[in-house]
């Protein structure tokens, strides 16, 4: 793991932007993307940059179950609001949260990933060490699947909803094996609330209880962390 320590959120986004500039100059064509608070400063930098994504494909990590792309809380909507409206891709895949048949939806998503191997997968990390919506206990062999969100994740995501009872309790997520299939991985973590998860990911044992710990076994992972997220290393 290559760890880049930065002072603050602004610097984390700047460093990440530089990594994207480099990877795109070297011919990357498929970007794995994430939602949540962490990547927003980077997406703002993308929007303000001269980077052109119009020949690229994006593949998002996850989506809430039961929300379609018009729903303001959906991750498809989040991506449109924060990135796609400014920087359209040739094609942008987000898991289908409203599919009537989740067996088909998960298989289709795996096929999309197989057909479009991810050059650079962007990740945030949950306070409990989740990546994508792969909660503690998820098999390292998992591909796209339906997930029961843990209470800790529901609580953390409640800030985006009017009422906690509005937060979906299930999601469709790329699996851990799908994430690990990316050629390169970039994980960004900022803030004190991520410090414990970062310490467990970097220095703890590789265990399914800490999904992000599997990244120790990927050959090309970069972690960008600010001082607060690095405080327990
Ligand atoms: C989002 C995702 C999640 C988040 C994680 C951190 O697509 O897959 O794993 O990256 O929950 O969320 P934030 O950045 O809001 O702290």
From TrEMBL:
GO cellular component: a single term: cytoplasm
Active site per UniProt: 62, 128, 130, 135
Keyword Transferase on entry: no
SUPFAM superfamilies: NagB/RpiA/CoA transferase-like
BP term (GO), one: carbohydrate metabolic process
GO terms, molecular function: glucosamine-6-phosphate deaminase activity; identical protein binding
EC id: 3.5.99.6
Catalytic activity reported: alpha-D-glucosamine 6-phosphate + H2O = beta-D-fructose 6-phosphate + NH4(+)
Keywords for this protein: Carbohydrate metabolism, Hydrolase
Pathway(s) per entry: Amino-sugar metabolism; N-acetylneuraminate degradation; D-fructose 6-phosphate from N-acetylneuraminate: step 5/5
Positions of the Glucosamine/galactosamine-6-phosphate isomerase domain: 11-221
Enzyme class: hydrolase
Pfam families the record matches: Glucosamine_iso
Function: Catalyzes the reversible isomerization-deamination of glucosamine 6-phosphate (GlcN6P) to form fructose 6-phosphate (Fru6P) and ammonium ion.
Alphabetical list of NCBIfam families matching this protein: nagB
UniProt family annotation: Belongs to the glucosamine/galactosamine-6-phosphate isomerase family. NagB subfamily.
Name of the protein: Glucosamine-6-phosphate deaminase
Naturally occurring in which organism (per UniProt): Leuconostoc litchii
Lineage: Bacteria, Bacillati, Bacillota, Bacilli, Lactobacillales
Gene: nagB
